[in-house]
């Protein structure tokens, strides 16, 4: 009887050890679990990137305002100072040269800029014999002249490709309203026009050669 009661506590202790071992489960493996691939790592935010928030460097890049390109216009192009392909005239505006029309020789002022051409011979009181004004144009076109603020009549020779294509006599405008002044137009596209004293071109007919070689290379 005494031996039976002494063995019960030992048996109970053994059963408790077995139950405790069963509850703890298998020991963890010493091999680490496989790490995710680079693609998987990119798909999730790291410890310093919670919930996929941009890093401080990314936020700084987003806050930078781009600097406009100096001189850029709406299309990104800049306007050139001088039109492409243009060349300065061989004879400066306001200079003089010699023009020969058939057998007639004139010493003329050269008007080859917009301001000089608009002014023309207006405001002068007379034009000496053997003198005049030559209007040069960049492109052949039909040209129209009028005579406001003129004190004397002039002959005008319309010139194209080194020849006169027509001659008109233009008289001063006497209208109070310049809009009512008479206009004279070239008979077709011309690249130059010559104004000389009225009557000086009476003998000039269409086709009469005009020598503009005094203007420099390229002039006929």
From TrEMBL:
Keywords: Signal. InterPro entries: DUF192 (IPR003795), Saro_0823-like_sf (IPR038695). The keyword Signal applies. Residues 22-97 are annotated as: Disordered. Residues 1-29 form the signal peptide. Transmembrane segments: none annotated. This is DUF192 domain-containing protein. The lineage of its organism: Bacteria, Bacillati, Actinomycetota, Actinomycetes, Micrococcales.
